[in-house]
Known about the structure:
- The chain has 401 residues and is of the alpha/beta class.
- The two termini are 40 Å apart.
- Helices cover 38% and strands 11% of the residues.
- Residues 1-18 and 364-401 have low confidence and may be disordered.
- A hairpin with a 2-residue loop joins strand 4 (200-203) and strand 5.
- The chain has 14 helices and 10 strands.
- It has helices at 2-18, 41-50, 80-96, 107-114, 122-128, 140-165, 174-183, 189-195, 216-219, 222-236, 275-285, 349-354, 370-376, 388-396; strands at residues 31-34, 66-69, 100-103, 200-203, 206-209, 289-292, 303-305, 310-312, 325-331, 334-340.
- The radius of gyration is 21 Å and the shape is globular.
- It has a single domain (29-396), classed as Metallo-dependent phosphatases (Purple Acid Phosphatase, chain A, domain 2).
Amino acid sequence: MRTILTLVALALAASAVAAPSSWNPPAPARLVLIADIHGDFDALLTILKSRDLIDDNGRWKGGRTHLQFLGDLNDRGPDTRLILDYLADLRKRAASAGGVVNALVGNHEAMVAEGMISYVSEGEAQAFSTFAETTETTNPLVWKNRLATQAENYRAHADYLMTKYGDPTPPFSAARYLGINRAYFGNSPYVSELLSRASVRVIGETLVVHAGVGEWLIDHSPEELNKMVHDWIAYYTGGGPKPSLASRWIIEDVEAGGSAGPLWDRATNDGRVSQGLIDRILKKYGAKRIVVGHSVQKNFEVREAYMNKVYFLDTGNSTAYGGKLSSIEITGERVHSQVLDRPPSTNGLRERVIQHVNHPPSIEPFAPPPDLIAKNEPGLTPLQKCEPSAFRKLIRNLTGD
């Protein structure tokens, strides 16, 4: 009987951790929004300090402010692990003061959960290299398939990036990426944090989503959308059953054969959404405005469109883009966009903050078995140039579709 009660308690605890955050909190007195940080800790600290949300040691001083990130905290830059660990602490400090620190799921979080690591920078991979092994999972086969197919998937995507954008990608190394694979799998705290995120939220009268909006916001409720994203991430990270393929559209890149959804939809940014649809969405959700990230804006400036009802906030915060540092503050009916030039340094703030950031338990870098290295290291027959759809077929090998 004791064993059964223990299992029930563990199951209840797991479900509490894994549930997406509330999608419709009441309007706070002050709401601050930040888009794609992409692994740039200095950019993050500069924005937070400019909004008077942290003190000179990086600790919360925002009181009851609601701080909302629009996703894509990871990839491209070297500081993803530092950012996630810092925000875990900041979230607790904000909560104790009546404030909120929350983040949406972005397409880059979904990709790394899926095992797509083409955008993981060298510094980012190194930072995760000491992450402790986590093996508690309901689906060890997914882990095995992830490692077995990752090299081919990586090379196919690298070829796509070179063909379309001229972006070179370093040769694949199983050892280099083993730490980040562990960090986004099983019972890792990074998985738990990611599973706690929503993909669509309405905060008071502000609808926030990572990429854009579409008819899917009319056809589906936020509960449905958030659950679909949540269930695919749980599956890819080894902690849940395989969802129905009918919901796969929500997690896939539109350009690679998927359908529009909260993580990838660029139709809003490209002007392919009608004003009528924007108005219908706002009416349905009782909102007055929509704020999105995902698409870097021209001249790195915050843009308003659709009769000033949609705000595009991605100004290339990360040094990977070399853009400007931006945020939006909403107090009552006032919407204030702020865009800053990147300062040459944080004047010691980064160094002071790092001193008190706690990292989850880690171990020495793990050396994978020689047979795993031999299977995944460069030297296999190179893949021919492929289109995104072909790359997606390779990704689908991960789940056996």
